[in-house]
Amino acid sequence: MTAWRAIIAGQLVVNVPVVALFYGMSTLLQGLLPAGQVSEWVRLLAAFSLSMAWGIYSSRRWRRWALRKGVSEVELHRLAGLTLLMMPRASTPRAPTAPPRKPKKK
After folding, report:
1. What pLDDT is attached to residue 91?
2. Rounded to whole angstroms, how far apart are CA atoms 18 and 54?
C-alpha cells in the first residue's frame, strides 16, 4: 500500500468523523440545552471533547493499521503531518535517547 492511499483512508476514518461528531453533537445539544451564554460554552466544549477523543483514538489505530499494511514509517509520518492527519510534532519519528552517563570514579 502506498503512503498516499493510507493518508486518504486516514482522512476518511479520522477527520471526517471528527467534523461530523463536532457538528452533530453541537446540533443535538443545541436542541437539548436551554438558550444562554453558559449553555453555548458547554455545548461547544462537549462537542469539542467528544470529537477530539475520537480523533486521538482513531488516529493511533489508523497509524498502526497503515504500518501493518507495509507503508513506510518515515513517509507516513511526513505526509500525516503535512495533511494534518496527525499533529506535525507528533508525526516526527524520534530517535531513542541515550541513557545518562555514569560519573567516573576517581
Report:
1. 46
2. 7
- What contacts 26, CB < 8 A, 6 or more positions away? 43, 44, 47
C-alpha cell read off for 96: 531513542
- Residue length, the chain? 106
Q: 37-68 vs 3-10: helix axis angle to the nearest 10?
A: 150
What is the reported pLDDT for 37? 66
Q: In which element (H, E) is residue 5 found?
A: helix 3-10
The list of the chain residues with pLDDT below 70 reads 37, 88-101, 106
Amino acid at 38: V
Task: Enter the C-alpha cell of residue 11.
Answer: 482522512
Distances (CA, A) of 25 to 28, 66, 85: 5, 29, 21
Task: For residues 11 and 17, give the distance between their C-alpha atoms in angstroms, rounded to a whole number.
Answer: 9
Q: Which residue has the cell 476514518?
A: 13
Q: How many CB atoms lie within 10 A of CB 51?
A: 21
